[in-house]
């Protein structure tokens, strides 16, 4: 099966070396190499962010995903030493890496122009072996993914291309490779991106007011920073952390991070969350952490058709009617309706936030406020329930509940 849908950009891109994007439904886009040359497989998803590609590419939540930027021109601010969202396995910022499986853009910037830049996007991608593709009609690709849904894909260039004897690209061979990879549905990935040893991030300026145990399911650099700015010491623990570890640290509260993969697979984290709630310890979660808290409260999750990925997604806080413009990247969601209240073993809970565009659940909490979470990345949200609001709310909760958690 060959793809009849090569884009108008293919000809104009013929100056560069050939790269092809193959989708699991057989559609093929021809473009040119971008970043590393070779083969990569992953789930094709699109992000509508006009800026912030470095934060996107380094976010561990994108592990095993090939990201398509809807913004046509990408790379003009290059690459810097400050905006990475991942850290090394022991929390070392020098160990930051790109987590996306591949990157798809239409028009890469030929020049880098930013006072913080220390290199180009192309060099960062090729230096880290990230295979990309440029000069394809990303509008057509995104419309296809919106219509058919996110799907498995592959980017191929150089020796990874397959040729029929007559010099024609053999897309059947490439398609077979695309279809051999596992689906994102059922993918258990948090353990692949999590710290294995644990590490501590000390608060800014002086002795800690509170101690938080942060479960690293794919944590971003910004999260411990947000806590540190509020006088909180953060112990970042591996995804398979136990309640005993949390209690031994005498943590005042628990944070559940963002992370890759299907939340339906995260039974270990859900079990731990139930134990934490049973102890009465304050809990705050974002993204994957919201899905984990929701599951611990008895809700199911499902795979969305094409997900929410971007930095301008409007979220309504049900109880106040206030809307924040949020940064998100999720392909799964919790089941529920805006403002729906329900009973749980830990008290009554509510679907606190939903997306103003499509009604997707974007936040849950226990009505007594001892545990709450949002589906978005609060540090990049603008408006009334932004980072300051959520992290300050958690700090207030820690202060109000200090010492109320049952300890050994
Ligand atoms: N940003 C996240 O934490 C993503 C959560 C989950 N992997 C999803 O795709 O829905």
Short description:
Belongs to the CarA family. The chain has 408 residues and is an alpha/beta fold. The chain has helices at residues 9-12, 53-57, 121-127, 138-148, 171-180, 190-193, 222-228, 243-248, 267-279, 288-296, 387-401, and strands spanning 18-23, 28-35, 39-47, 65-69, 73-74, 102-104, 107-108, 131-134, 151-157, 199-201, 210-215, 232-237, 253-256, 283-286, 301-317, 322-334, 341-344, 347-355, 361-366, 371-374, 377-382.
Mean pLDDT over the residues: 92
Q: Which residues sit in consecutive blocks of at least 5 with pLDDT less than 50?
A: 1-14
Quaternary: single chain
**Tell me about the biggest sheet?**
12 strands, mixed
Radius of gyration: 22 Å
**CATH H level of the largest domain: which superfamily?**
Class I glutamine amidotransferase (GATase) domain
Q: Give the overall form.
A: globular
Distinct small molecules? glutamine
**How is the CATH topology of the largest domain named?**
Rossmann fold
SS-based class? alpha/beta
Region (CPSase): 1-210
Domain Carbamoyl-phosphate synthase small subunit N-terminal: 17-156
Family: Belongs to the CarA family.
Binding site for L-glutamine: 61, 259, 261, 288, 291, 329, 331-332
Give your account of this protein's structure:
By secondary structure, the chain is an alpha/beta fold. The protein folds into 2 domains: 9-180, Carbamoyl-phosphate synthase small subunit, N-terminal domain (Glucose Oxidase, domain 1, 3-Layer(bba) Sandwich), CATH 3.50.30.20; 190-401, 3-Layer(aba) Sandwich (Rossmann fold). Helices cover 22% and strands 31% of the residues. It is built from 11 helices and 21 strands. The strands form 3 sheets. Strands 10, 11, 12, 13, 14, 15, 16, 17, 18, 19, 20 and 21 form a 12-stranded mixed β-sheet that branches. A 7-stranded mixed β-barrel has the order 1-2-8-6-4-3-9. A two-stranded parallel sheet has the order 5-7. Strand 11, helix 7 (222-228) and strand 12 (232-237) form a beta-alpha-beta unit. Helix 9 (267-279) packs across helix 10. The termini are far apart. The chain binds glutamine (GLN). Residues 61, 258-261, 263, 287-288, 329-332 line the site of glutamine (GLN).
């Amino acid at each position: 099966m060959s793809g009849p849908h090569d884009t108008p950009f293919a000809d104009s891109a013929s100056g560069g070396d050939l790269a092809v994007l193959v989708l699991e439904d057989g559609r093929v886009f021809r473009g040119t190499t971008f970043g590393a040359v070779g083969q990569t497989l992953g789930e094709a998803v699109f992000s509508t962010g006009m800026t912030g590609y470095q934060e996107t590419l380094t976010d561990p939540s994108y592990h095993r995903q090939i990201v398509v930027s809807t913004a046509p021109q990408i790379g003009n601010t290059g690459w810097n030493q400050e905006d990475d969202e991942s850290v090394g396995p022991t929390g070392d910022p020098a160990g930051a890496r790109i987590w996306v499986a591949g990157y798809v853009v239409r028009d890469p910037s030929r020049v880098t122009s930013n006072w913080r830049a220390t290199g180009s996007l192309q060099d960062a991608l090729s230096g880290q072996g990230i295979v990309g593709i440029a000069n394809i009609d990303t509008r057509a690709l995104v419309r296809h993914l919106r219509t058919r849904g996110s799907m498995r894909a592959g980017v191929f260039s150089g020796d990874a291309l397959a040729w029929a004897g007559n010099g024609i690209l053999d897309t059947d061979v490439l398609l077979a490779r695309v279809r051999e990879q596992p689906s994102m549905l059922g993918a258990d990935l948090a353990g692949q991106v999590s710290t294995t040893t644990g590490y501590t991030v000390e608060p800014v300026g002086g002795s800690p007011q509170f101690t938080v145990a942060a479960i690293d399911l794919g944590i971003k650099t910004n999260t411990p920073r947000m806590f540190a700015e509020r006088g909180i010491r953060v112990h970042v623990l591996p995804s398979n952390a136990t309640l005993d570890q949390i209690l031994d640290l005498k943590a005042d509260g628990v944070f559940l991070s963002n992370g890759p993969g299907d939340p339906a697979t995260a039974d270990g984290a859900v079990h731990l969350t139930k134990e934490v709630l049973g102890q009465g310890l304050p809990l705050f979660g974002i993204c994957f952490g919201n899905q984990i808290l929701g599951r611990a409260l008895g809700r199911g999750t499902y795979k969305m058709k094409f997900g929410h990925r971007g930095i301008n997604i409007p979220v309504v806080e049900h109880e106040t009617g206030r809307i924040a413009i949020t940064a998100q990247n999720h392909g799964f969601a919790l089941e529920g309706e805006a403002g729906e209240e329900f009973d749980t073993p830990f008290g009554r809970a509510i679907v606190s936030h939903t997306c103003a565009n499509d009604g997707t659940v974007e936040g849950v909490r226990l009505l007594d406020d001892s545990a709450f979470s949002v589906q978005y990345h609060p540090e990049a949200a603008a408006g009334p329930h932004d980072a300051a609001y959520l992290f300050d709310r958690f700090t207030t909760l820690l202060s109000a509940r200090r010492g109320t958690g049952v300890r050994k």
